[in-house]
Amino acid sequence: MAAQCYPSMNAVLIYPGTFDPPTCGHIDLVRRAVPLFGGMILAVSVRSTKPLLFDIDERVEMLHAATRSISGVMVKPFDGLLVDFARAMGAHALLRGIRAVSDMEYEFQMAMMNRMLSPDLQTVFMMPGEDYAYVSSSLIKDVACHGGDISTLVPPEVCERLKRKFSKQVIP
Ligand code: COA
Prior knowledge:
This protein is an alpha/beta fold. It has one domain: Rossmann fold, CATH 3.40.50.620. About 40% of the residues lie in helices and about 15% in strands. It is built from six helices and five strands; from the N terminus they run βαβαβαβαβαα. The chain has a five-stranded parallel sheet, sandwiched between helices. Strand 4 (about 95), helix 4 (about 105-115) and strand 5 form a beta-alpha-beta unit. It binds coenzyme A. Coenzyme A (COA) binds near residues 17, 18, 48, 82 and 110. Coenzyme A binds near residues 81, 99 and 138.
């Protein structure tokens, strides 16, 4: 993808997620959004409703490594409500990825709830590349845990960490 830079909208953009772990789909979305917005804050949620494989420090480190070459990207952990973090950061918009129509229902609910909590905060949706339309963090963990090759779907640092994690675990 061409790294063309458009005039900045001067909007502070937050891309929130659990990123457990970050995938090439997440990074693809970062690369698409940064030229439009001039930068972004990757907000890594400390907690999740899903069981977590990586702790917050590991997830922040993986995102740092995967976005090192992209200028304008900051990685920050957050705990508590996303809208409170967004307010503290002076953010104008949240970015979320839509991989398939099935993502819409959940994303629509979250966007509406966030709008109810913080009416001036907009949610922007973008689509990752088609190559990553089927990728999710849970699927990556499942395939990696059973020894499958996920090296084309996650950044190299993530691949290494997944290998290390699962080499220590005995699958019952
Ligand atoms: N490429 C690949 N996968 C993608 C993707 C992309 N571009 N975009 C999303 N996904 C996948 C993720 O891998 C993840 O997969 P998984 O379900 O298998 O783990 C799934 O889609 C969504 O995960 P993610 O993008 O990490 O978001 P999330 O839904 O886990 O994060 C928060 C949700 C953290 C943003 C939300 O829970 C939150 O805001 N929490 C803070 C508390 C709060 O404010 N709650 C009220 C919210 S209305």
